[in-house]
Amino acid sequence: MDPTTPQQACFEAGIKFGSLYHQFAGTPISPASADSLAAAMEEAIENQPFCEDVTVSVRTEALEAAIAEAGADYTELTGRLIEVEMVIEYEGVTVETSMAMDDGYPLMQVDAVQE
Amino acid sequence: MDPTTPQQACFEAGIKFGSLYHQFAGTPISPASADSLAAAMEEAIENQPFCEDVTVSVRTEALEAAIAEAGADYTELTGRLIEVEMVIEYEGVTVETSMAMDDGYPLMQVDAVQE
Amino acid sequence: MDPTTPQQACFEAGIKFGSLYHQFAGTPISPASADSLAAAMEEAIENQPFCEDVTVSVRTEALEAAIAEAGADYTELTGRLIEVEMVIEYEGVTVETSMAMDDGYPLMQVDAVQE
Amino acid sequence: MDPTTPQQACFEAGIKFGSLYHQFAGTPISPASADSLAAAMEEAIENQPFCEDVTVSVRTEALEAAIAEAGADYTELTGRLIEVEMVIEYEGVTVETSMAMDDGYPLMQVDAVQE
């Protein structure tokens, strides 16, 4: 069957999450550079079609722990170091999505779909 | 409202497309290396949860044209150089998706949703 | 033969250029988001060892032309859209490097090596 | 001072290492997909100017340990999971470089420079 409009909206939401994650995973990050990276991630992905709002929060304690574990001054960005909220608007459908730690693993999920 | 299972399946399908695109965009590619890159893209993304099948086809003429235009021996991967088909299986729902050129621009879309 | 210290310094400089380019190539960019991306690129790469200073300048006219050509609101980052200057300090050797357009193509080069 | 030819050769070698690392870091990888990814990395980077030979070896035990630790079927590529050897030829200078684990951390280095 052809997809419904809400299904297409969820597909668009997923595209933005995969883009955000795999574009920026691996970026060198430290407490000092965390804010500029989070801001760039938000504004970069908000350029994409149907992407109404992106909020990236660096998990400071997890970042500091990763750097301490590496015995270095910085580490590389992974999903464990950030929380993300994203709102997609697609042909009258609003999709709210997020990425947060769940049982020790970063989980991307659809929180709500409103027609 | 909470998402339905088919909506979640479409979200998962979108994640895989965004991942595939932004992980590999920018990779140096030539006619000689196109096959190994396409194979790696397929097998890498098939590792992700719910991803049943990925097919990446390099658009050879577009690749050769991009290289000729650059006056070089290779170019960098963009969405204009590949076609992608992907099948997602999520809790009994099958989602078929594809990326192909549409009006001169690479378009990712949901082709069918089967419960 | 074993590398000299200045040769190792130049190797380190090259690593930073390759990192900067391939980490961020493909990022969605528009005039509105250009500044935050440039700032994040600078601060991210400055985290890397021996990297004293990074300056990323977006070539605004080239960005606007790429967006106009695509008939879209944004485009994806390539080397044609930025100029980069970078200073590496490695065991008493300073290496100045840059990326700028040269004959229609973005060229990364070593500008000076000072012991 | 202007760079010498061997210094420029080392700069080119560094570019290839940074490219290889940051293009592919974050790629989903499992024992089953490791070979295709290694082959694609080799052929992709060999496209770049002056890059004579690239060999990527996946560290199978480290990969299996990372997957077991994550409690998943795959993980994401980091420098800890691969060893790399690369030969650069630049205007009569041959540079041999490698990335391997050193004191628990992946280290990129110049092994030899031959004029």
TrEMBL record, chains A, B, C, D:
MF annotations from Gene Ontology: dihydroneopterin aldolase activity
Catalytic activity: 7,8-dihydroneopterin = 6-hydroxymethyl-7,8-dihydropterin + glycolaldehyde
Enzyme nomenclature, EC number: 4.1.2.25
This protein's pathway: Cofactor biosynthesis; tetrahydrofolate biosynthesis; 2-amino-4-hydroxy-6-hydroxymethyl-7,8-dihydropteridine diphosphate from 7,8-dihydroneopterin triphosphate: step 3/4
Enzyme class: lyase
Residues given in the record as substrate binding sites: E12, M108
Record-annotated Dihydroneopterin aldolase MtpD C-terminal domain positions: 5-110
GO biological process: folic acid biosynthetic process; tetrahydrofolate biosynthetic process
InterPro entries: DHN_aldolase_MptD, MptD_sf, MtpD_C
Pfam families in the record: DHNA (PF04038)
Xref: Gene3D superfamilies: 7,8-dihydroneopterin aldolase (MptD)
Keyword entries, A-Z: Folate biosynthesis, Lyase
Entry superkingdom: Archaea
Entry's family note: Belongs to the archaeal dihydroneopterin aldolase family.
Subunit structure: Homotetramer.
Role noted for this protein: Catalyzes the conversion of 7,8-dihydroneopterin (H2Neo) to 6-hydroxymethyl-7,8-dihydropterin (6-HMD).
Protein name: Dihydroneopterin aldolase
The organism's taxonomic lineage, starting at the top: Archaea, Methanobacteriati, Methanobacteriota, Stenosarchaea group, Halobacteria
